[in-house]
## 1
Amino acid sequence: MNTHLLNTCIIGVLVLLISACSQSNLDSIASDSIVYCSESDPNTFNPQLDTYATTADASSYQIYNRLIEFDPIDGKIIPSLASSWLVSKDGLTYTFQLRRGVNFHTTSYFTPTRSFNADDVVFSINRWRNESHPYHHVSGGRYPYFQSLKLSKFIKEVKRINGYRVQITLNQRDSSFLANLATDFSIILSAEYAQNLLINNQPEQIDSYPIGTGPFKYQDYTKGQVIYFKKHDDYWKDEKTVNNLIYDITPKSTLRLAKLVTGECDIIAFPSQSELDVIVDRDDLVLDQSPSLNIGYWAFNTQKAPFNDPNVRRALAYAIDKNSLLETVYLGKATPANTLIPPTSWAHSEDVNDTSYNPILARKLLDEAGIEPGFTMTIWATPLIRDYNPNAKQMAELIQQYLADVLINVNIVNRDWTPFIEKLNLGEHDSVLLGWSADNGDPDNFYRPLLSCDAIPSGTNVARWCNDDYDQLVYQALQTDDIAQRQLIYEEVNHLIAKQIPIVPIAHSLSYQAYNKQLIGLTNNPYGAIRFSGVSKSQ
Amino acid sequence: MMAVIIRYLLLFVITLSVLICFSLALAHMFPGDPLTNLSGVTTENAKVIEHLANKWAIDTNPIHYFMNYCSLLLQGDWGISTISGNQLAADMARVIPATIELSIYSAFIAICIGVPLGCIAGIKAYTKIDYSINAASIIQYSTPVFWSGLAFILIFCFQLKLFPLSGRISVLFNIPHQTGFVLIDIFLAENIDRKAAFMNCLHHMVLPSLAVGLVSAAALARLVRRSVIDVLNKPYISAARSRGLPFKTIFFNHVLRNSLLPVLPLAAIQITTLITNAMIIEVLFSWPGVGNFLLQAIYQQDYSALRIGMLVVSTLVISLTIFADLLNRIIDPKKGSVSDVSI
């Protein structure tokens, strides 16, 4: 009998030993690693191919650099791979002087023989710009951000002047051009790596086994589970950075928070609005809260009857109570939206007429438009958790109830992001709950990608709305650098949107970042993706 | 023995056929298009639909439809997940080993804790020690496993910070997926600190295995206790005592072996409970197993994944039940005739 008691004791002691032992071993690895609990899988490791924020988070600032970047603090454009640049008086010619001695990643699948030069810039831009480029059609040939801006048509020529100087000539003025080159999507790839892959006949690897000049190099990725990055030892910028960067993919927001509390994550993506108080209450955690340029909206597929009729769209907009959506889904931590652009931007118009909750008027308008009671439509709820829509499924359910009051049946469609966006691009939806976060401070970053005709094939215009007046106005706004003049044009645009209602704007929300106090040097980037370069861990 | 095995095989095939039939019926009972529920493909493309209808033989007579379905299942073509678009067979190959792994750890804990406690309670029958072990086991056995799992998380993860909360191993270790059993994969992995990884893995498995194992340990302890009491009252034990053998010798030579034998078939039944509990605990501890997978499928209304998940889990349970029963017969050949064989 005594032996059994002894056995039980031994087991107990073993368990304690295990916990003590593994803790000390783990600490040495953990102190040189950052674990980021991200919310889902990236679609690719090349942000040129995708406007999905998770893709940019996992690649844009970690693996790559851009020619120029936004300063995350004041939003000014600062040098990156281009050490300086010159814009001609007519605003058509941009000359970039490139930085010397910038090294690409050396990995198990590629060893560079030369450092970064003008060829890489020409290659990276021509890949999305030039349809006859050998890499243009690799990985699908869709470059949604650039296509939605028609940027390839704006650019006349990308010329290598010498090894470290590149000249870009435009066909017409574009006051947002530099801002677009500084976005998450305008990354610089390695032309040498691309050449090697082409010789080995594996060009699509350029996007799944990425090579860049950024602070981290890609190491390994298991879908739905984890991404591993390693420090790029020859990074050109002298910054203190940890050795390992790990993305622990954790779709459930409560679990992300739990992991942050237990220390299994150092930083989490998209803390849920209902859990913010837990973070604030804890001394070891930091909650960064900043106004963000974003919009959550309900878009109708305007190419499908009966949603091609502005009156039907208006009726549906009247049928929902935005304020209660704001209370329930955003827990009041957002401002109601009356137009595309948030109030913090200079292009915002206060006096645009917003639809208010009026189910009787809604039913009346529907009757006039010939929509019978019992009409059935779909609402696609984005599976993403985003600041602009923390719970699209819940919002869809609320809208479902509101529309039931005006005798319209709603089927809610849920899918994973990849099949979701594929079907969305085919235009199979009736309406969709989605949103947009700014990639740069220019208001054009909302108007063209979200509602211009060119943004339909690129997939960012999910309302599939094409209006000639609208397009003419937003392109006109690019012709000048004078803000007062642009403001006038955008005012007109805002009224046009309110009249046509291709989308029902719902909310502009704050953006949150929650992390452990041990992390030093983290900035909240209002323009796009998260950056881990220069972030270190205190002991 | 051969006859027994053959009879089991037949029973296995019949039960499996009924299950397959049921899973096929599920595809028709779930909301939506049966073809989508079978193949997992959602499309409005007429050509693709026609191809799928041909492949799954959905419009043919029921017998052909069923046989075609069976052959597809045997070929490993189980359709894709509607939500993620992954091949379900590959998904299952990824999640099933994790569940089996957790079940093995839990079974190990159940035996390590349940058997000694049962013996102690049996030897000290009707004393305070017995009563307290009995009371503890009743409490543990009647506590829902998800509740004790949550309590463990609250106490050991959040309050005491002794154990990690989720997964099989810290993400700091990059263990490539090879066998699916993480303890084996650690030793196949290169470029990692194997010792630290192994320790970390043990550290991760403690709480989930305990949560599942303790329930079965409680059941086991009660079974062993009863059996030990029975054996202790047998005349041959009195005889041994009267010969003056020390109690230690009597216990290890006579009592233990004889009392564990009748417990075995009853313990085997516990395997099903164990796996079910493991699937529940997986969800709490984000263990990447089949329970977690099925719950996600339910949340996202992924009917093709649910159909396959149900089929795979039930096949696993049936196989284990048969395996346990066969083991019993090997250990105790006296047991029943061929006609007693049943699932």
## 2
Amino acid sequence: MTDQQNLPTALAPFTLTGKVALITGAASGLGKATAGLFLDVGAKVVIADLDADGARATAAELAGKGPTLGVSMDVSDESAVQAGFAAAAEAFGGVDILVNNAAYRGKANTMDMSVAEWDIMHAVCARGSFLCLREAVKQMRGRGGGSIVNVSSMSAQHPTIFPNMHYDSAKAGVDAITRLAAVEFAKDGIRVNSVLPGGMATPGPDKMRAAQAAGGAVIAGPATIPGRNPMGRVADPIEMARAILFLASDAASYINGAELLVDAGFTKG
Amino acid sequence: MMLETIFGVAGQRVLIVGATPIGEASAAMFGNLGATAELADIVPEEAAIAETVAGFVERNGGIDLLVYAVTRIGTYALPTMALDQWDAVQDANLRGAFLAMRAVIPVMRTQGGGAIVAVSTMGSVHPVLKGNGAYGASKAGLNALVRAAALDHAEDGIRVNAVLPGAVPVGDPPADMERLGGPATQPGRLTLGMGSAEDIASAIVYLASPAGRFITGQALVLDGGFLIG
């Protein structure tokens, strides 16, 4: 009886009731799973994606769960980011939560990687996280604070596959952004944390395997060792989305600058 | 000549406690490099350590380097590990290191400085083989002891560091990797294959040499790349 009475109150910090969240790369994969979960717990969600049609389609698909807005956003483009955040403010008054999820997933062997490939990776992952963070902070300052979750990767801390040097470098940069911003904007009531996913069953890895089959970069490295993953399976995106939700929510109100590994223990194995 | 001014350890008075493969390799290497190296094959109890250190200092007029190489592995399943088994591992690897440091630090402080290198293990920072709870915990404690001693005695001119061997036979007999199982037994995990006791001794020489004079409180991993695999 007591438990039943206390349950809703105790769980309230884990919800996002009334909060406005902007999620980049949200038309598919982890971003989409996160958007659905956020809507389930009461948020209004701006679904931003480079794929404008995909953003609108996902926003429409999820609209039954709660208020959504699909916006076109190339996170590496300053004016596109500014326009996307302006649209979010116009629709919902401003953002309380930013999930920097958009990533470039191209693979390239280290010894023949083009400079353009290196640059686009950093433009999307590092520059994109910075640009979105900057716009989010502007809006959050006017709303009494907020929470930013940067989606990094376990490969920012530990080698996983070889044709990924540009990705690992960019994601390590994202974690540096997390640490610095956590300190710089704490006074504004803004928390900044990273989630570091391990392998996930999303379109990204499928594209990677397809690219290899088509003569692209060869996938090799520690993550391809049989038995290397202690739990022996890749993650469902919802398992990452829940970690993102936790850090985004008030349940994590004293967690700032953290790097949360959600990797089945890969980095400890 | 140039190399001698950088890496030379000739004339250093080196006490190595623990006749493990790494202890023996270190004694041989320091000896070959012109140091006065003595290897103490003792059970690291209070009286034996005090006696060993006092004898060494009396014979050599001081001590420039202590290498604490005692390593008791002891692989036990946690639910059935006897308290005696747990204690024996902690006593050899951690309590003994404390006793040895306590014995040499006053001598080093009086003579104006010195260096201590403790042989820890990569397993103190990352799981390597199953059944190493007592061993890993004792060596992780050793790492903390090293950091604390380095902080406390920097002002005495005493540098204190740890080496963390991995993929190297550290015990006598060495751990039966295949029987134990664990991350290190996965194919391809030992990036450079198995290392040797000499690989670790070389690092101890480096830490003891002039090249190491700005290094203290560190845990130097020598694992053939396991940790990044």
